[in-house]
Amino acid sequence: MRRTDMRLALASGLIACASASPALAQYESGVSATVEAASEERRRGLSWSDGEPVLRGSISMPVAKGLSIEGATTSLWGSDRHGDADAVIDLGAVFARQFGGWSLSAEGRYHLFPGASGPGYGEIGAGAAFLIGPASVDLSANYAPKQSAIGGDNLYLSASAVVGVPGTPLTVSARIGRSSGDVRDPVRAARLRPNGAYWDHGFNIDYLKGRWFAGLRYADSSIDGPGSHHAGATLIGRVGFNL
Question: Which residues form the signal peptide (predicted)?
Answer without folding.
Answer: 1-25
